[in-house]
Design brief:
This is LysR family transcriptional regulator. The chain is an alpha/beta fold. Helix content is 44%, strand content 22%.
């Protein structure tokens, strides 16, 4: 078998990550036709069909699923070899909202490091509002946050759904004020929840204010209060109690990636970050 073509393998991996020829072409700054030609060249070289494509869906074939991890390793090794020739390290500051950060964060950072070993990432964890302010002031170069208010910029990474969660033994009696736990400072989702309670005429009281998500999670898990959580980040052992206690539904939001980075290498790193985030969410949803 002849040597693999790096551009062809990159095309295949990008299609696999984004599950779209259109988005893959945009990410690589080329056309769908060029992407298709590169994929066909790789498939011919390997003697296997790697991508199955229909008008409604793009997915890995059985052979493609076997090859994709090795293909990523191949690209990472290529990038490390090229990076070894340069002593220049680049860096950018990445903000990740603490109430968005989940188990996928180590995977995302590991994928970024494998993609570009010359890139030093300075990670800042904070709430979305503070990170948006820091981004607007130019203090950070990119941010993964929950969309706030009517702000419409940013690349959508995934939808975010919310619920009212409490321990199975949590008791809320009719006529009593609903006991709430919340982060301090409060986030935008908490404000939305409070407005929803007020609109529904449900009395509430904040009985527990915590300085970190783990503190609030512990309070809810202990049955001291209820709280609003992303459905994917609710504390283990808690249950969604909106129907049980007649609590109002909460509108969904979006997780978005904001960036001011313009150089090609940094933007490619961000595309890798976005693809890894979507891939992880697809596997865990």
């Amino acid at each position: 078998m002849s040597a693999l073509d790096v551009d062809a393998v990159q095309a295949f991996v990008t299609i696999a990550n984004l599950q779209s020829f259109t988005r893959a072409a945009e990410a690589l700054g080329t056309t769908q036709g060029a992407i298709s030609v590169k994929l066909k060249r790789l498939e011919d070289r390997l003697g296997h069909k790697l991508i199955e494509r229909t008008p409604r869906m793009v997915r890995l074939s059985a052979q493609g699923a076997l090859f994709v991890d090795s293909a990523r390793d191949f690209l990472a090794a290529h990038d490390r070899a090229v990076a070894a020739l340069s002593a220049t390290r680049r860096r950018f500051a990445l903000g990740i909202a603490a109430h968005v950060a989940g188990p996928e964060v180590p995977t995302l950072l590991a994928r970024l490091n494998a993609h570009d070993p010359t890139l030093t990432i300075e990670v800042r964890l904070d709430n979305s509002r503070n990170l948006l302010d820091a981004f607007d002031r130019g203090e950070i170069d990119a941010a993964i946050v929950r969309r706030e208010d009517d702000r419409r910029d940013g690349e959508v990474l995934a939808p975010e759904h919310f619920g009212w969660f409490a321990a199975p033994g949590f008791v809320h009696r009719p006529g009593e004020a609903l006991r709430l736990a919340a982060l301090t400072p409060v986030c935008g989702v908490h404000d939305v929840a409070i407005h929803a309670l007020d609109a529904a005429g449900i009395a509430w009281t904040e009985v527990f204010l915590g300085g970190g998500s783990s503190v609030v999670s512990d309070a809810v898990s202990a049955g001291l209060a209820t709280a609003v959580f992303s459905c994917r980040l609710a504390p283990a052992g808690t249950i969604e109690v909106s129907q049980k206690f007649g609590l109002p539904p909460l509108a969904s939001s979006e997780i978005v990636l904001l960036s001011t980075l313009s150089d090609m290498q940094s933007r490619q790193a961000l595309r890798t970050l976005a693809a890894a985030f979507r891939e992880h969410r697809a596997h865990t949803s």
